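User: Could you walk me through two proteins back to back? I'd like the raw sequence and the structure tokens for each, with a short line separating them so I can tell where one ends and the next begins.

Assistant: Of course. Protein one, sequence then structure:
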Amino acid sequence: MADRCSDATAAHARAAAAGHPAARRVRVTVLERDPQAVRDGLPPVVGAARTLAGRTVLRSLGTDPATTWLLSIDADGTVAPGWVREHLAIADTGAGAVAGGVVLDLPGSPRPPGEPPAPDHPVYAANLGLRADAFLAVAGFPAVGSGEDHGIVARLRAHGFRVVPGAPGTVRTSARERGRARGGLADLLRDTGSESPGAGRPVA
């Protein structure tokens, strides 16, 4: 999902997918939301973008939502080998969702500031697994500019779905301090004074 990008993100994604060794056995769809909204200064509604992506994938697959697992990650995240496998192992226990953690792309792999201690765990759309029928039952992510991950987890719990906290195949994410989602992780890092080699680098 290229959400209102003002650069060549979608083209790069399509080229990378076409040239990937797994291109013959993995279906890739690159969606674009109107970049004119960025030029017009309209704030991103990332929750609506994630919901559109999820619904598009499910229509394309045509599989049983009760046995389909949706994985959410951000474009600036990388996952360790086994990430999908670990999510699916928890999905097989009947979970409605898995809320995994992230580590910052900094020396020492620190966790973002302000995370709750165990046994509570943070919620990040950059490491979130959702059973498709649960996703559909709560109408996807709330249409907000940030906090959509917390929003859908709250919806799932309110509907009686089991959300498993944990950090399967922890995702490494950018420590940038400039992002488009107001109130998101980039703002948190800037406000807490985190320092990184990419600090201040904008994201288009």
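----
Protein two, same layout:
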Amino acid sequence: MPTISTVAPATTLLARFHAVRQATMHLIAPLSPEDLMVQSSPDASPAKWHLAHTSWFFETFILGEFVPDYKPFHPDFHWLFNSYYNSLGEMPEKKLRASFSRPPLHAILAYRTHVDAAISTFLEKAPEEEAVRRIVLGLEHEQQHQELIATDVKHALFTNPLHPAYTELIGRREPETMAPPQDWVNFAPGLTEIGITPDPAALEAFAFDNETPRHTTYIAPFQLATRPVTCAEYLAFIDDNGYRRPELWLAEGWSTMRADGWQSPLYWRRDETTTSGWSIYTLKGFQPLEALSETPACHLSFFEADAYARWAGCRLPTEFEWEYAAVQQPFNPASGNFIESANLHPTPATSRSGVQQLFGDIWEWTQSGYTGYPGYHPLPGALGEYNGKFMSSQVILRGGSCVTPASHIRPTYRNFFGPSTRWQFSGVRLAKDAAQ
């Protein structure tokens, strides 16, 4: 739920509403109706379901509550496209979403059109402030699902025996630019303010409730790597038997890795036709590792990230260390590698000085568990289920990825997944205690 206490001008909000909704449709344009139905992992959802659920959010939390004469598009959609809001009633099991061959795609697209028209009409009537807050939240929610569409589609296409590409690679597969050598930046924070108190005078001040309240915490001096770990560096960990050395792994990580048969990051496969002996599947198809060797390694679980850090004689940063370093840097999402760049994969670092690539490219695992900040209280009602109820057995990631919308990220943004999650664009930035 956004912590914002101003009503955005209706015309501005309406333009943003249409831009975000159109961005979702642009994202699915390369996909066939059959592609939209695939659910290749219990963590993922079919793209068709994402199209419906994001519309369900606007219908349920805005139109259904603030438009007295609103008529739902279809009575069954209220429970069919509910994701996890238990206070709103029953819902199908997540693993069954690929069975939703009905309603057909044309009905889902008609549902989106219906909701878009209703929100447009609603915004023309000077809606009350709480309704505007919820529309802003709905847009941020849809941007989260845009990223999920990209990651879910990648996994779906990868599991297809043909390994088709989402979009074709243009040009030759030349080696990437060399990343600068990894270096370290020293920070000495002490007592530090963490989190956000949004400016009520600006729409850009949106924040999810789990980013608040702003509070003071102590951070000891630390060092942070200037860039994320690259594929070439992670390959050295593999070649040094990193997946066979129990002393590098947390107990749960070792058990999970062995049970699931991990021997490399997700989407890596051995390939004798390449110079490196490996290929990596991307949204533009398989590419030899040597063409991506300088890009940040991604699709790593927390367990793999932590094991690599131990192997390197370092550790993962805490989320507070990461945020402190991030707020010291110029924050310009337009300059990062986000979904708008259409790279759809991390790119090499370029600068030789200072901390870089904090925003975009890869979500960076921290060592911090996902809990509420001091003074955090979930919101009442169904929207209180948005973040608060997941504060168990999850680990914080920071910074956004190459498939995150640029306008969706900020230094205080807290993403969270279970420690075995690998289908997101998640990787490693090293940290260590300050030199004594």
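Residues 184-433 form a domain with the paralog of FGE (formylglycine-generating enzyme) fold (CATH 3.90.1580.10).

Let me know if you want the two compared in more detail.
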